[in-house]
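Re: the 339-residue chain
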Amino acid sequence: MSGAQKIGWGLLIVAALVTTIVFTFGRPVIENYENSIAAGFPYILLIILSLIVGWGFKKSDLKIILVCVIVEIFVGIAEYIYGIPSFFGVQNMGDTMIGDTDLLYFNRVFGLSLNSSVYAFKVMLGLVILLYLDKELSRKVFLFASALIAAGFVTSFNRTAIIAAVVGVAIHYRKNWRVWLWGIPAALIALVAVAPYLMENFTRGRDEFDWSGRDVVFANFLSFLNDHFFFGNATRKVWLYLNGDLYHAHNSYLELVASNGMIISLIFLAGYYLVLLRGRLSLAAPILIYSLFQYGIFWGLVFHDIVFAALMFHALREHRQKAREIKKIISPQYLAQET
C-alpha cells in the first residue's frame, strides 16, 4: 500500500469516526423517507464498507459481472422489441407508456432492474469494465461486446449516461491515433445523418433542452445545504418531497454533501480520492461524469459502489504490477551504466 493510500484510509477512518459521533448525538432535519433500515444508517460507513468488499474482488469476478451486464442487455433488447418496460411486473413510472411516441426517451426499458436509471448505470459499468479489459479480449469479442453495450445505451436511453460514455471513450483512447483517425470521420458522418432525430430525443421532443426537473431539484438541495452547511442531515440520506413526489439529489456529490454536511464530506472525499481514484481518473471518468446528473456512486453498500471500487482497485494493482516489471527490466541497465 502506497503512502498516499495509507493517508487516504486514515482520512476515511476519521470521516467514519466523525460520522458516528454526529449520527449518535445529532438530530436529523429530515427523517427516513425511504422507510428502509439502510436509509436510517450513516451511509458513509456503508460506502467505506463497499470499498473493503470491492478490495476482495478478483479480475475473474469483473469478467463475470460484464457477462451479467450483457445478459441484462439481451433482456432489455427483448423488452424493447416486445414493447414493455419490464418482463417482471415493475411499474412504469414514466410520463408515457411505451409505444405512445417514437422518442427513445419515452420507450426506455428496465432490463432486470427496478428502473431505467439503474439499468443505464449497469450498462455504464459494463462499458468501463470492457474498456479496462480491452487488451485481454480478442477483437471480435471486444467489438461484439461493444455493440451490445451500445444497444444497452439505446434501450435504457439515459442522456447523461450516453454523454458520459462518449466522453469516457474519448478519454480512454486519447493517445490512440488509429481510433481517432477512423473514429472522428465515422462519428461526424453518423452525427450529420441522425442529427435531427438525435436532437429530438435529447430534448424529449421539445424546442429547447429539458432538464427533467433537475434545475428545481438542484435548487432545493442547494438551499437545504445552505441552511445546514456544516453537518447536513446529521449523516442521514436526504430525500425531499417536491410537488408531491420524493426525490434524491440526482447528483451523487450534492447528495453526499447535503446529507453529511461540508466537514464530513470534504474529509471523506479526500480519503476516497487517495484510496480509489488517484492516478485512475481517466478510467473512472464515465462514472464520475454520470454521477454529476444522476445518483451513480455513493449509494452505500450496493452493487454500484462495490463493483466500481473493485474495478478501481484492480486497475491500481495492475498499474503497480507493470511498474514492478518495468523496474526489474531497467534496473540491470542502470546498474551496468553506473559500473
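The two ends are 32 Å apart (CA to CA).
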